[in-house]
């Protein structure tokens, strides 16, 4: 666990970080878990057994709550077209520089490619979606 200049916990990565969903405050640890838009949180004071014991209690509560609620579910499949979509095609939009951008998911990683014309971006997006299915 790394601590920043202002005392906040800096998250390293999910595989290394055993304090995922736990943040340090001035007087205790806060555990926050969000599932289906509902937030579940609990505060563990340092005065309740010290910093290490309160962190252990926070980790135990977090693990039990995640077991109860289940792991986080990531959205898969086609997404609803945003209202600010100017192309009319999900996954095709214009960037800050006026170029057309086609986006898609590949092996769980967000990918994108820019094009001069909307027609090229739409064709590439369709090809990538058909290639996955």
TrEMBL record:
Region Disordered, residue ranges: 69-90
UniProt-recorded name of the protein: AP2/ERF domain-containing protein
UniProt organism field: Rhodopirellula baltica WH47
Lineage: Bacteria, Pseudomonadati, Planctomycetota, Planctomycetia, Pirellulales
